[in-house]
């Protein structure tokens, strides 16, 4: 009987909080997080969080919003329901971006120290520090939870870290200044944006070798393109890539990386997020101080929402 009970418990999915229908945007120069109601596209609240908020993400049950506070060497914790800043957790020098493992561990990049850090947000304990390249930036957790990827802007690499033993197991050389990664649903491939090179690369995760690169984005879209954010659509048919100073979001074919379309957004389009159904894409436009709302079916910007100063990252709970 006990064995049956244990099996049932293992099969029950982790409880997730009810959707708050909120969009959370970090304002890098405003030291705040703007909260927007996704049903009305109206600003609900501005939360003062502290110095230089950039990376943002949810706890696995979506009850907490984590914010990387670079100037405070901390992760801020916001209650997603009450919108109150609960506490700050020491997170090493200059945390910039992070990803949350399904087990709750936060894997973050410490830009100044060239480290990837594993942090327990409940206890505040630093579980591991892994030396990576210069200026680590983007972080991603593989769908099977076995690996963490960290991009290093000045080393032009994606570092592959084993979760089991916190060891660096591979380095993948990519285009100049890699920023973010996204995984295929089965985890067999990942994509990476390279800002300075103007590239998007597709990498076979079993071999850690690049299989496809689009080096033509500046010719196909505009010369100012600097790819940053990258997301796969829920149906797996589209890659959305923010173009930075290219002031647009591009849609790429996940297999060939050919451009399928673009939508003009604001100035220096940076962090992007998708609604759960994939029908809306949200893009932070730094110098504009706005968030673009994009209809992904029509592939057009349908609204801009004022945020705080220099919006950087965005997540959606709907």
Summed up:
The protein is mainly beta and 318 residues long. The protein has helices at 2-11, 217-220, and strands spanning 22-27, 32-37, 42-48, 53-58, 64-69, 74-79, 85-90, 95-100, 106-110, 115-119, 126-131, 136-141, 147-152, 157-162, 167-173, 178-183, 189-194, 199-204, 209-214, 230-232, 239-242, 248-252, 259-264, 269-274, 280-285, 290-295, 300-306, 311-317.
Give structural notes.
The chain is 4% helix and 52% strand. It is mainly beta. Strands 3-2-1-28 form a four-stranded antiparallel β-sheet, with no helix packed on it. Strands 4-5-6-7 form a four-stranded antiparallel β-sheet, with no helix packed on it. The longest helix is centred in the first third of the chain and has 10 residues, at 2-11.
Write the layout of secondary structure elements.
Layout: H1 2-11, E1 22-27, E2 32-37, E3 42-48, E4 53-58, E5 64-69, E6 74-79, E7 85-90, E8 95-100, E9 106-110, E10 115-119, E11 126-131, E12 136-141, E13 147-152, E14 157-162, E15 167-173, E16 178-183, E17 189-194, E18 199-204, E19 209-214, H2 217-220, E20 230-232, E21 239-242, E22 248-252, E23 259-264, E24 269-274, E25 280-285, E26 290-295, E27 300-306, E28 311-317
Antiparallel strand pairs: 1-2, 1-28, 2-3, 4-5, 5-6, 6-7, 8-9, 9-10, 10-11, 12-13, 13-14, 14-15, 16-17, 17-18, 18-19, 20-21, 21-22, 22-23, 24-25, 25-26, 26-27
Summarize this structure as a short list of keywords or feature phrases:
mainly beta; globular; 2 helices; disordered N terminus; single chain; 4-stranded antiparallel β-sheet
Q: For the residues shown, what is the average pLDDT?
A: 94
Give the strand order of the largest sheet, numbering strands 1, 2, ... along the chain. Answer: 3-2-1-28
Instruction: Report the order of strands and helices.
Output: HEEEEEEEEEEEEEEEEEEEHEEEEEEEEE
Structural class, please?
mainly beta
Number of extended strands: 28
The helical percent reads: under 10%
Using the alpha-carbon principal axes, give the shape: globular
Radius of gyration: 19 Å
Major beta sheet, specifics? 4 strands, antiparallel
Amino-to-carboxy terminus distance: 38 Å
Fraction of residues in β-strands: over 45%
Number of helices: 2
Q: Pick out the low-confidence regions.
A: 1-14
């Amino acid at each position: 009987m006990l064995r049956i009970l244990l099996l049932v418990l293992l099969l029950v999915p982790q409880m997730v909080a009810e959707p708050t229908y909120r969009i959370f945007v970090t304002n890098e120069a405003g030291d705040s997080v703007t909260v927007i109601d996704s049903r009305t596209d109206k600003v609900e609240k501005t939360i003062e969080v502290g110095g230089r908020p950039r990376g943002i993400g949810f706890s696995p049950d979506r009850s907490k919003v984590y914010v990387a506070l670079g100037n405070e060497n901390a992760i801020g914790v916001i209650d997603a329901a009450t919108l109150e800043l609960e506490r700050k957790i020491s997170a090493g020098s200059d945390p910039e971006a992070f990803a949350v493992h399904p087990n709750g561990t936060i894997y973050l990049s410490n830009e100044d120290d060239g480290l990837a850090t594993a942090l327990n947000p409940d206890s505040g304990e630093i579980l591991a520090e892994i030396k990576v390249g210069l200026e680590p930036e983007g972080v991603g957790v593989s769908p099977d939870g076995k690996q963490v990827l960290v991009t290093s802007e000045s080393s032009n690499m994606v570092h592959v870290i084993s979760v089991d033993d916190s060891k660096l197991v591979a380095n993948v050389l990519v285009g100049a200044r890699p920023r973010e990664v996204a995984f295929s649903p089965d985890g067999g491939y990942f994509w990476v944006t390279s800002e300075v090179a103007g590239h998007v690369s597709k990498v076979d995760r079993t071999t850690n070798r690049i299989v496809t690169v689009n080096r033509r984005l500046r010719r196909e879209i505009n010369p100012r393109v600097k790819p940053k954010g990258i997301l796969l659509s829920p149906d797996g048919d589209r890659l959305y890539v923010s173009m930075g100073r290219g002031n647009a979001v591009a849609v790429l074919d996940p297999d060939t990386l050919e451009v399928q379309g673009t939508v003009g957004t604001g100035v220096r389009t940076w962090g992007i997020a998708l609604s759960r159904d994939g029908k809306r894409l949200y893009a932070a436009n730094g110098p504009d101080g706005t968030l673009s709302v994009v209809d992904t079916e029509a592939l057009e910007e349908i609204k801009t929402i004022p945020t705080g100063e220099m919006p950087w990252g965005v997540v959606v709970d709907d």
